[in-house]
Amino acid sequence: MKRLFAILLFLLPLVLPLRAQFKSEAFSQQYNDDKASDKDSTDVLFSFKEYFGGLAHRNELKIGTLAAGSAVFIGGEQIYNRQYWKLPIVYGSILGSAGAGLYFKSQGNEDIAKYCFIGTAFSYWAMHMDGVVSFKTDKYPLPGKATLYSILLPGLGQAYNGEAWKIPVYITGLATAYYFYDNNSTNYERYRRIYKEASNKEVTYEGPIPSDVAIYYRNVYRRLRDYSLLALGAIYLLQVIDANVFAYMHDFEIVDDLATVNVAPTVIAPDTQLAFNTPPAVGLGINIRF
Which of 7, 80, 213, 280 has its CA 20 to 30 A from that of 232? Predict the structure, then answer.
């Protein structure tokens, strides 16, 4: 659990600067009329000039640019959203808990320091969640908002898109992948410990599992642990992409009469009617209109 938490804490500031959308040419069609004022455009990945101009309220920011810049410049989202009263809370919770963690760590209080650092991570997460929730836009659903929701909290992007029925599917997938990760990681550590004890020539090992069996199962569970972690990451990424794509396709209409098929009796005149006096034939005519 500690290792997984450390991985997620490390990846969070790396994930946020990514594009808020996975927009490709497939979505470059004119589904929305106003492209010039679209805050969700991904023409430019990140621009410091645009970001700080937005914080000064000289221009509007794309939500992806705002989230990316605020991943480093803490409090940027609250400044852009004109919620200045939140800044003391943001800085106090993040810097205060981080400082307390460093202090207790220096005093040898590892357990208290751990919970302080957990508080730092939670405060950092809450800052971004607040920034995304408070981001004002006239477009619904905004793909960048749906994407960031799913990055910050799996399933929230689907709820924002009005597809809450998908949440149990992804949560079940994530919980299952984590269960196998945790189980395989526990067994890996167990057989690794047994192998170290069995192969240590300085002590007498009297356990029931020999070293060659222990190293075999150690390698097996290490491989299964890695596969489980990959599955966990794949499901997490899938729900992010799902939220993004379906937010883009929200206004894409499929009507029932996209194509019509008409079947009616008809008289077929053959090409050889005049030359060979061939009588016309009676049959069915099928007319397909797109």
Answer: 213
67, 46 contact by CB (below 8 A)? no
Which residues 6+ apart lie within 8 Å of 220 measured at CB? none
Give yes or no for a cis peptide into 141 (omega within 30° of 0).
yes
Q: Please name every residue paired with 266 in a beta bridge, in sequence order, or none if there are none.
A: 283
HSE-CB of 199 using CA atoms within 13 angstroms:
11
Cα separation, 258 vs 171, in Å, equals: 36
Pairing outcome for strands 260-268 and 281-289: antiparallel
| Closest by Cα among 68, 79, 74 to 148 | 68
Alpha helices in the chain (DSSP H): 2-15, 48-55, 63-70, 76-80, 87-106, 110-134, 143-152, 156-160, 167-198, 211-248, 273-276
Question: CA angle, 48 as apex, 83 and 77 as ends, to 5°?
Answer: 15
Answer whether residue 139 shows pLDDT above 70.
Answer: yes
One-letter amino acid of 268: I
pLDDT tens per residue across span 141-188: 999 999 999 999 999 999 999 999 999 999 999 999 999 999 999 999
Tokens of 250: 């929200």
Q: Are 40 and 139 in contact (CB under 8 A)?
A: yes
Rounded distance, CA 55 to CA 195, Å? 57
pLDDT, tens digit (0-9, with 9 covering 90-100), for 18-71: 444 444 433 444 434 444 344 444 445 678 899 999 999 999 999 999 999 999
């929730």: which residue's tokens?
133
- Tell me the domain boundaries of the chain: 1-139, 260-289
